[in-house]
Amino acid sequence: MKTVVITGSARGFGLAMAKDFRRNNFNVVLSDIGEENLKLAKAELEKIASEGEVLTAVCDVTKSANLEALWQKSAEKFAKIDIWINNAGVNQPDLPVCMLKESDIDFLLNVDLKGAINGSRVAFREMAKQGFGQIYNVEGYGSNDAMKTGLTIYGTAKRAITYFTEALAKESESHYGDKILVNRLTPGIMITNFLTSANGGATKVELSDKVKKVYNILGDYPETISAYVVPKMINNKKNNAKIAWLTTARAFGKFFKALFKKNNYFEK
Ligand SMILES: NC(=O)c1ccc[n+]([C@@H]2O[C@H](COP(=O)([O-])OP(=O)(O)OC[C@H]3O[C@@H](n4cnc5c(N)ncnc54)[C@H](O)[C@@H]3O)[C@@H](O)[C@H]2O)c1
């Protein structure tokens, strides 16, 4: 039986992917910062019939020791880890850089960038020992060089994630013979708590009508995106793969569909 570890999986995209891996009979390791949310997520997962088991592990990705412990706990239970997803992420306050506090910047970079780098480092080292595995890092706004006031630090982190993941895939190819596949997930816009909160929930992000309009056209619930990307991850055999939901073609299709049917994710 195969095993997946997903950071930041008590809710949102991480939880949606955990459910799809469970539907595909994977053992699933749910990990996040809060014990209570993990318990709730585990109960939700266990409603889904599966041959796999569910393990929970509290892990703050800003602490390397937590990431090391996440691998150890997962490997003690399931012996090997097939897929490791660095999914944990936070948004930034919707402010220009000069109005952010240094602590806002540190907080975001520690979770979104350093957390994924250290998660990749730990998983890569252990996957090199076991001789196989796939690592996925999650791209986001800025990965494709998009720029917008209020997302500069987030975009900087996600642009760096793209570089880092491609460079690590190259290292894998040159030194480890492609045994470890290092890949990117590009989910597009997901209707989750992430869009309306920053600093890990401590700060609210008010969305303008213009932004809501774009999210209503291009956005999807994480379950829709997960149902598309998870089978692709399971079947992936390539290093440096990019598994993308919101491609240019899909975005055009969504603008066209919006002429006939309007989503309203925010006024419920
Ligand atoms: N929502 C979007 O539109 C969108 C778009 C592109 C990419 N992404 C990325 O997708 C990923 C998941 O986002 P989401 O929309 O599901 O967000 P979310 O806020 O719903 O979920 C994020 C999860 O990460 C956890 N988390 C936060 N800090 C953590 C830490 N230090 N250690 C461990 N876990 C931590 C949270 O507790 C939460 O469970 C993130 O990397 C995000 O940047 C989101």
Name the descriptors.
single chain; 268 residues; alpha/beta; Rossmann fold; seven-stranded parallel β-sheet; two-stranded antiparallel sheet; 8 helices; 9 strands; binds nicotinamide-adenine-dinucleotide
Radius of gyration: 18 Å
Question: What are the bound molecules?
Answer: nicotinamide-adenine-dinucleotide
Physical arrangement of strands within the biggest beta sheet: 3-2-1-4-5-6-9
Question: How many angstroms does the end-to-end distance come to?
Answer: 41 Å
In N-to-C order, the SSE pattern is: EHEHEHEHEHEEEHHEH
Low-pLDDT runs: none
- The top-level CATH class is Alpha Beta
Helix share bin: 40-55%
The share of residues in extended strands comes to 5-15%
Structural class, please? alpha/beta
Overall shape: globular
Number of domains: 1
Number of helices: 8
CATH topology: Rossmann fold
- CATH architecture verdict: 3-Layer(aba) Sandwich
CATH superfamily: NAD(P)-binding Rossmann-like Domain
Biggest sheet details = 7 strands, parallel
Verbal overview:
With 268 residues, the protein is an alpha/beta fold. β5 (133-138), α5 (152-176) and β6 (180-186) form a beta-alpha-beta unit. It starts with a strand and ends in an 11-residue tail after the last helix. The model has no long low-confidence stretch (mean pLDDT 97). Helices cover 47% and strands 15% of the residues. The chain has one domain (3-192, 221-246): NAD(P)-binding Rossmann-like Domain (Rossmann fold). The chain is globular and about 50 Å long. Nicotinamide-adenine-dinucleotide (NAD) binds at residues 7-8, 10-14, 32-33, 59-62, 87-90, 111, 115, 138, 140, 187, 189-190, 192-195, 200, 222. Residues 7-8, 10-14, 32-33, 59-62, 87-90, 111, 115, 138, 140, 187, 189-190, 192-195, 200, 222 line the site of nicotinamide-adenine-dinucleotide.
